[in-house]
Amino acid sequence: MPIQVLLNGLSIGAIYGLMAIGLSLVFSVVGIANSAHGGFYLIGAYLAYFFQKLGLNVPLAMLLAILLVGVIGVIIYRLTIQPIQSLHENVLILTFLLAIVFEQIIRITFGPEYKNLQPLVAGVFEGGGIVMSNQRITAAVLSVILVSLLSLFIKRSKIGKAIRMTTQDSEAAQLLGIDVTLIYLLTFGLGTALTGASAVLAAPLFTLYPAMGWLPFILSFFITISGGLGSVSGALVMGVIFGLTDALVSYYIAPTWGLIAGFLLTLIILIVKPQGLLGR
């Protein structure tokens, strides 16, 4: 197996994992399926593009985009989702409609043309028979770092402990004085910010266009359910497995079969283990 193919799979898999974790976190804590996940990905990528066009340097543009996506997520949750949170079917439909609205806003504001986002680190790494863009390497490393920081935050911080207690039993958490409503709000904002982070890291590897959010949503959905609904670690592990499958099949068979093979693998995992790879 060429080491280039393995590294390609691991790198894109780490990005896939980060992409799915935002969706998984919201589902595990807030208990809703956020169909607007791809829409927040779209907004993150285009906000970074917008800030770059304003003349901001690339790191600052990306950081502002991530923070703003989180803020937008908090506002969207508070105004539209929270009032109907207990009506899961309604939330599913509402967030799906929000994704369509986001796409149309982007299309009207920026136009339907394809655009490019400047990478965080330009250039290409060459050595030992390996050729890989510095942005891909950076995106993969930062994805792993962000997931690690998220894990530490949830395990060690006071808010993280409140999130864990709310996930396990929201009623008991309320009795212990935890503001569950606030935890839901913060978690949704954190989940959307992570989605924005995956967007600004991954988008420079591809192109920007108004409908670009749907594939990340579908990928995240399959990775989340096959990794185990509500399992953040399952989303990361499954993201890497999906990325490796994509890379290997693309290399040995054909690039057009890479994603298809990844989706088929997730279906096989769900048939063998309906609760997902690391689900309970």
Topology:
Elements: H1 3-30, H2 37-53, H3 58-81, H4 88-110, E1 124-127, E2 130-133, H5 134-156, H6 158-168, H7 170-175, H8 180-202, H9 214-227, H10 232-252, H11 258-272
Antiparallel strand pairs: 1-2
Helix pairs in contact: 1-5, 1-8, 1-9, 1-10, 2-3, 2-4, 2-8, 2-9, 3-8, 5-6, 5-8, 6-8, 9-10, 9-11, 10-11
Give the structure's gist in a few sentences.
The protein is 73% helix and 3% strand. It is an all-alpha fold and 280 residues long. It has a two-stranded antiparallel sheet.
- Secondary structure category: mainly alpha
Q: So what's the oligomer here?
A: single chain
Question: What fraction of the residues are assigned to beta strands by DSSP?
Answer: under 5%
Topology as a string of helices (H) and strands (E) = HHHHEEHHHHHHH
Strand order of the largest sheet: 1-2
**For the residues shown, what is the average pLDDT?**
91
Q: Helical proportion?
A: over 70%
Biggest beta sheet summary: 2 strands, antiparallel
**Terminal Cα separation, in Å?**
34 Å
- Please give the count of helices: 11
- Globally, the shape reads globular
Radius of gyration: 18 Å
How many β-strands, per DSSP? 2
Stretches where pLDDT is under 50 for at least 5 consecutive residues are none
